[in-house]
């Protein structure tokens, strides 16, 4: 903590305490032995403590003690004493070698060696364990333990400087005598115990101390633990103990005001800070933060603490009190789960587990989780009390805490279990509230702590890589599946959590469907599906949990199977206990009961909107008879699907109208399939088996449209390929009514696409929580993980451009700071080691990214819900004849109800049982796996190239920058294992940087610095850096301080600013177009032109006559070109273009602009303010005026071709026609996939070609989604490769010769 705000608001240096002053004067008690290591954190109000920062020296490269080394011989793999070895290491780093040995002394006392006899000969595993325990006990028992030595000058110094500083702090409070009450807050239980042991041995130094350890041990609510905790706190209040050594898990239990609270370990937690402040009130109390010198992590944590302490913060003042306070939405609370008391032990206490991320909330985590939830949901007014207490003095557990939330539901007031202590009661209330929120589906991933993440050894080969394809450089990786479904199946099925899937359609042709899950799905963002290339928004709305009776469960189960079977026309089956989710329809009236915007804790009740009659009907039957054909009306077929076959798996039709003007004897309409026949009856005779005529030849016909099959609705171009079917006419007497309404079934047809999108979102949430602490916006992270080959409406390409430039930016800064003696060439080589595709691919593998990448397109025909199986079909399962009308149903078997069975199964049972009873052929040998089976298995793997993985890593960094700026991007860069070492924030660069002194730089001409500052609009804090930026290597004596190093970082800064500018200016432009524009903007010729245009070139300092001549010649010529271009642009009514492209500039002119950018950046202490000002005043006006897609110097035809190539489009053409025979005009059109993109007319072929391409470019700029909506070449190319691979594999397995394989390949290549 270097600076604080003074009374005037200006930064001032913090004052150090130089000597001890008596407490009676209201001053500090700390002695001069540690005064040089103390820094004030000023706190003005009288009720706040004296807050200080205590610095200590770090202890590095500490080797394990002799005792630990000897014990390792009996347990080299740490399989027997894993926890003890871990505790000894923690004690060694926190308190020193003396403390590490004390861990073993305590462990030996706990070993039970009674009855252990030394075995002879060969030993079993159990015998080896008992022998190791006996030997360890013997070694420790006979070990000569040393007392703690605090003399830093002695060779026997066996504690850490950190512990020695703690002793100095505690000594300072000896004058308080019996009035002293202190608390030491540590991270780990092992550290707390060993600190107590050490302090008890320092009788001479700390005779007045009576330490007691209070740590959480055992399950929450354990009476024995609660009694021990209560007694310890009571003893502390009574003075029997005057020093508590606690872990963070019990800090909320200490509610007495203490003399001093020492934060021995720091925690990045505002709530932890609030608890510490609550225990230290008034200037007589001290709140001390122990910080290691030079530790940047400690410095960043303290910087946030200082911001809280220096300004009035009512929430901080109230949050640590027993009543607590509703947090603001800006609450900063780390999501790293705290494991102080369990360390790496298995925890047996109850918990809540997030099914999406596997994170857990234990009771001790509940208050923090509750605060995070309230802040994320912005529930309640910040600062309002949360907890109230009731005390029953006659009870053994007198305290009951209640939590009040601003809602009208059952969450309005939540009471916890009776407890021995107010702090335990508060935990109980918070955990009970979290459990309620979880059961209601409101507790999302943001409230949970960060789940544990196992990091692979960076030196090991990542086991994710399975196979390597040498021909194309790709490797096979497993595709991760969402943890949500597997975890939800382990939960007993008691209630269902609805998520309403509702396509937003103006014509209301799609009805809402509920996705019912065993555990609540997290909040899902709206998504898009595509019909004929036109996007439709899908909304996801959570509903209140449903409690169903046994009959309703059976009906929903059967309805789900019915839906999946008819959507895919496959005989799916799944046992009830393994089904991952259920489907159920909703009435249209559901839309009238949305969630209340004023109460974020309420969910709409959907139970009353479920049409149970339709659910039961569909569960029992797939079709029912139509009304009497002679009396059927339009009202009978509203929202109806018609089947012309009486089988389950068949085509279905959307009923449109009853055509009373037509009957079976009418002549079919021209162009229809029935046109060759004289009437519809003749058509039936010719195309139906066993057709014996109709009962009524005067019945009207039903006009229908065929329902399209399941399509990939996530790909704009694949959905654009669907064809509009013509009307058909069916005879009512031969048809049946499908039991699922048409509006519901239309939505059901997109459920495969919807469930794939939900799976992808769940994976995004999982990786965001586990790897990136939820710091990336999920929509951006989803795009970053999606490869173009997936065929979605978004992919990583735009974000990859941004991430690539950011990575170049941060790595350049890092190398510039950490390698102050390296020149530009060496820095460039070092940078390539960091940002090369190979390095990024290895970094991403170490981080575990590849399984989360979404590269495979969604193959809708292979959709199969988790745990679903396809039953083997019998000969009558599916109708084989191709007729358009269905075969009349066979006579129904007699039923007790008198209703025809119509091929139904009775009762709400499994609709697959009729297939299970189909006769099978036992003599049939098992066949090889089918192509579909192989395709289904192949969905669990994906082939990724090294560049693709590197691109995803860069895109993730780009997504982080878009989400939270450069600090969040740096955090994510480090999470991806990119080697940016010892740099945690951008401020660290400024502190570590070494700049040459002013005397080491050359002297510029008079007024050069002022002139440059006037041009760029920014004043240099360190003008000698500008002198270095303007000094050419030709200046003798200043070769080491020339502009080369600054030009190295300036190039990276410029590259990043250009990409960011294009992101803002061209928000919807394709990545290919962005690359074209960026390449033009950062080219040497463009930068040289900017230098001349702005006048910066005049201030370059050099001593080369040849360079002077070339600069003068270039400046003269480029100014002439500029004047000519401006004149032509005005005459032609267009924007001026790139007049500089055909003039080769001296490289020094372009370099100087980049070096000035680097100089102003370093001068501003590595902040981008000055560089952005330069860009805004100099570069941006020039770029916006001269560089757009329409003004690029390339021929428009070349630009258009490159844009098409960037999209992978192969089906485009330019059609030119003349007005034959006059030939006065030439007409030209650009056609993409049979869609006219642009057209124009001119007098010559050359002119019309240039003009139509320019108009096509303009059309693409105006409609950025045109290519993704129209072109599906990438998808078709991937499909052709897959077919080729499958056929070649089939040919290989069949043993065909090379000639036949060559014929197949030639056919495929011609496709």
UniProtKB/TrEMBL annotation:
Entry-linked InterPro entries: Dicer_dimer_sf, Dicer_dimerisation, P-loop_NTPase, RNase_III_dom, RNase_III_sf
Sample GO molecular function, one term: ribonuclease III activity
GO aspect biological process, one term: RNA processing
Acidic residues biased stretches: 341-352
A Pfam family assignment: Dicer_dimer
Annotated RNase III domain residues: 763-965, 1009-1165
Biased amino acid composition, Polar residues: 323-332
Keyword Magnesium set for record: no
Keyword Hydrolase belongs to the record: yes
Region (Disordered): 1-29, 313-358, 454-477, 870-943
Keyword list, A-Z: ATP-binding, Helicase, Hydrolase, Nucleotide-binding, Repeat
Gene3D superfamilies: Dicer dimerisation domain (3.30.160.380), P-loop containing nucleotide triphosphate hydrolases (3.40.50.300), Ribonuclease III domain (1.10.1520.10)
UniProt protein name: RNase III domain-containing protein
